[in-house]
Amino acid sequence: MKTNDFSFVSEMLKKRSGLVLTADKAYLIESRLMPVARTHGFSNIDDLITKMRSPGSEKLMVDVTEAMTTNESFFFRDTKPFDLFRDKVLPKILENRKGARTLRIWCAAASSGQEPYSLAMIIKEQSAKLAGMKVEIIGTDISKEILDKARKGLYTQFEVQRGLPVQLLVKFFAKSGEHWEIKPEIRQMVTFKEFNLLDNLQALGKFDIVFCRNVLIYFDPPTKKMVLEGISKLMPPDGAMFLGGAETVLGVSDKFKPVPEQRGVYCPT
Q1: In angstroms, how far is CA 70 from the centroid of its own chain?
Q2: Are 218 and 114 spatial neighbours (Cβ–Cβ below 8 Å)?
Q3: pLDDT for 190-241, tens place per residue?
Q4: pLDDT exceeds cutoff 80 at 25
Q5: Which terminus of the chain has a lower count of CB atoms within 10 Å, N or C?
Q6: Separation of alpha carbons 187 and 113, rounded Å
Q7: What pLDDT score does 29 carry?
Q8: What sign results for the dihedral spanned by CA atoms 193, 165, 178, 181?
Q9: Which of 222 and 98 is assigned the larger pLDDT?
Q10: Sign of torsion, CA 230 231 232 233?
Q11: What is the pTM of this model?
């Protein structure tokens, strides 16, 4: 790929999504954009980028951004964060929220829905402890296409085999042809919204718990700081934010601090 073409695409992605691509990631552009090129009738990526540079290419820009920012997801990814959510964070929140009517959870970069649906299954299993509290789970992503998939709640055999305990598969899914479909009782617990983390986060409202896992690794330090500070304004002092295993707030933002003995969990300062 030509240097100026890489610069053009990477600058466009940074502006639209916050995604930062270094030169060693040029292969990602080629692998992810070739299907987009074919869909739009181009035989190669050079022609695709030439078209992107011309007026009236907004739809193409959107498709390219979605292709580059859609990341793989699976149920109960890495296991430990979900154990912490169930065994540590949720009990503490419920203890502090005695008498409260609503618990709000946000999954940023929800992708195809596995993370928010995993949380919904945990909530359902813990419903006896919620004492009639309404739980709102909001899953957001920049990609309209991936959110459409998430709303359908249809997953392949391969997808449900990745991290999903068999007892939960049997309990909360129904076979639908060659796919597995999440039952309505779980699907209706999650609301999916198209949203860009670079936009005004205040529009989403307040949240007690935020999952922002494996997102910040794609941003440069100023963007990480901006997003973290925006999230902090949505949360109460005793709220909990989950980051990915390779992510941290240390040296990035002073708006959060690590929760002792709960790796990957942070609370507002």
Answers
A1: 9
A2: no
A3: 999 999 999 999 999 999 999 999 999 889 999 999 999 999 999 999 999 9
A4: no
A5: C
A6: 10
A7: 83
A8: negative
A9: 222
A10: positive
A11: 0.86
Going along the chain from its start, the domains and CATH numbers come out as 3-69 (1.10.155), 80-268 (3.40.50.150)
Q: Are strands 256-258 and 265-268 parallel, antiparallel or unpaired?
A: antiparallel
Tokens of 179: 């796919």
Q: Which two tokens stand for residue 108?
A: 């940023």
Contact 39, 51 (CB under 8 A): no
Least confident of 7-16, 109-118, 222-231: 7-16
The owner of tokens 């890495």 is 78
**Tokens 């609503």, located at residue:** 102
Q: Report how many helices (DSSP H) and strands (DSSP E) the chain contains, helices first.
A: 12, 10
Q: Specify the residue for token string 């600058």.
A: 11
Q: CA 70 to CA 87: how far, in whole Å?
A: 30
Give me the sign of the Cα torsion angle 37, 42, 46, 52.
negative
Q: Which of 119, 143, 111 is nearest to 240 (CA)?
A: 119
